Amino acid sequence: MDRNIKEKKCNDFENQKTVMNIEEWHNVVNDKLGISGGTIYSSSGSTGNSKSIIYTDDVMNAAVRRTKEFISLTPLLSNCKIAILWGYGLFPPASFYNRALSEMGNIVYPFGSGRNFPSELKATKLGEIKPKVIIGMPSYILRICNILKEKKLLEKVSEKLEFIITGGEVLTTFYRKTLEEEFGVKVFDHYGMLQAPMIAGECSEGKMHISKEYKSEVLMSDSKISEMGRGILLLSSEKAWFPLELERLNVEDNVILSKDKCSCGYETPTIKIIGRSNLKYKVRGQLVDFDELITRLNVLGFENKYFVEVKDFNNELIFHISNEISKEKFKEEVNKIISFTYFVESHEKIEFLLTNTGKIKRIIIRNN
Ligand SMILES: [Zn+2]
After folding, report:
1. How far is the CA of 201 from the centre of ligand 1 (A)?
2. Could you give the 3-state DSSP secondary structure of residue 53?
């Protein structure tokens, strides 16, 4: 890694190792690896702040290798039909899974998440192929599940299904329980598909194992760095971004890191994800977990029917909702999380701001 950057970023932590956030790391990567060519990916979080990063062939290959590592923690054998329900175009994780699973001898159906292949048609197709594994974002698999139920195809699709792999968003208890009950199979969650990328995968014991290619630590609330315990996950790796050495990437998620031996026999540390640390904002003295709020509202079917406006300058929180949904029902859910006075404005036609990948900006922060 570049000496200047290293020196500039030096801090008081024990052995003077750098801690970088994702954006800073992306800048280093784009600067140092961009010259060797690769695929640019622009991601956009719920806040709509876009982050671009270049994935070189070496980085892609390493991510495919880790995908295989996580798949090896599931009961998958080769020669299975697998439906991949995320990513349109060159969404990198779609490519990691396509390559990993086909190289392991499976037949992969890269159906994507809807833009190139309408969900209705996809549901019918799933009924025809009867996959052994379905891979996708929990919210999207749930949407497909509802379509399958309407079309009376759920039983047919579940017939040969052995398990589901989720990733790309927080797998809440609700999502896991609903998907496992509806499809009648176990869900294996994968974590950190884009940032590092491919950080951890669940084993048969339900523990989330960090890849053997990362050294993991946590940044505790007292700014100390620890080998285990609760804090923000930090990752270091010599392999993931070869030829660059990744040092203490702050992945902005709160976790509990454990080095206890897992009964599955796989010997890497495990994490329990507590939540995103970057979607929490202080409004009127209360720290609001917007990630949890958004998840709860989406689960109730309010997706694409609201956005939140946070007015920083006078500490106001306004929900803009479509008049198709009940204001009372909406407030009932919000009240479970927010205990201060907020506003809800109902609109006949709701004007959304979109991120550069076409997703709705759920949270709009205004500073003036
Ligand atoms: Zn395990």
Report:
1. 9
2. strand
Q: How far is the CA of 175 from the centre of ligand 1 (A)?
A: 21
**Burial class of residue 292 in the structure, from the number of CB atoms within 10 Å of its CB (0-12 exposed, 13-18 middle, 19+ buried):** middle
Q: Each residue of 243-291: pLDDT tens digit? A: 999 999 998 888 999 999 999 999 999 999 876 655 667 788 777 878 7
* 106 Cα to the center of ligand 1, angstroms: 24
CATH topology classification for 58-206: Rossmann fold (3.40.50)
Q: How far is the CA of 32 from the centre of ligand 1 (A)?
A: 36
250, 20 Cβ separation under 8 angstroms: yes
Q: Report how far ligand 1's centroid is from the alpha carbon of 298 (Å).
A: 31
Decide: 166 and 175 in contact? Cβ < 8 Å.
yes
- Other C-beta atoms lying within 10 Å of the C-beta of residue 226: 14
- Superfamily for domain range 280-366: ANL, C-terminal domain (3.30.300.30)
Where in the chain are the domains? 58-206, 280-366
Could you identify the residue written with the tokens 């194992």?
Answer: 209
Structure letter (DSSP) for residue 350: -
The alpha-helical segments, DSSP class H, found in 190-323 are 290-297
Closest by alpha carbon to 235, among 25, 59, 93?
25
Q: How far apart are CA 312 and CA 319, in angstroms?
A: 14
Distance CA 79, CA 160 (A): 13
CA dihedral 196, 25, 168, 293 (to 10 degrees): 140
Q: Which residues of 255-271 are buried (b: 16+ CB within 10 A; e: fewer)?
A: bebeeeebeeebebbbb
Q: Are 311 and 318 in contact (CB under 8 A)?
A: yes
66 contacts 198 by C-beta, under 8 angstroms? yes
pLDDT in tens, 200-253: 999 999 999 999 999 999 998 788 999 999 889 999 999 999 999 999 999 888
204 C-alpha to ligand 1 centroid (Å)? 6
Distance from Cα 262 to the centre of ligand 1, integer Å: 5
Neighbours of 30 (CB within 10 A): 15
* pLDDT at 121 > cutoff 50: yes
- Look at 323 and 290; give whichever has higher pLDDT: 323
